[in-house]
Amino acid sequence: MSGAQRYSRTISAEVGEIERRLRALERNLERAGGAASATVKASAESLGDTVASTLFGWADRFRQSANVLGDQSTAFGKDAAKFGRNTLNEVSARTERYPFIALGVAVAVGVLIGFASRSRD
Question: Which of 40, 73, 27, 8 is nearest to 19 (CA)?
Fold first, then answer.
């Protein structure tokens, strides 16, 4: 056998070995790609669940805050109505006890309003 033929067989064997290793590498990459794809999919689903859970938590807190604010507003409105009713009752009682003072206060307020509107003209 000549040296050229032995060299050709050696090269051919090495090329065959390279092709075999490339196919094995390709199979390994396909398996790794499939596993990575499954991992990425699971991670994306987990992230979606986490984001949804967080948003629902925020919405629930916002709803609770709105309920508390509504309750506080209702209580404030009741207190304001009570204060207004008490003030009206007090003014009515004092007007009945001191009618001339009430009349004097009303005249004074009327005069002040008259002066204020006159100075604008």
Answer: 27
* Domains: count for the chain: 1
**Per-residue confidence band for 25, with pLDDT thresholds at 50, 70 and 90:** confident
Per the structure, the complete domain to which residue 102 belongs is given by: 3-120
> Each residue of 53-89: b (16+ CB within 10 Å) or e?
eeeeeeeeeeeeeeeeeeeeeeeeeeeeeeeeeeeee
Alpha carbons within 13 angstroms on the beta-carbon side of residue 87 total 6
**How sure is the predictor about 18, in pLDDT bands with cuts at 50, 70 and 90?**
confident
Q: What is the pTM of this model?
A: 0.39
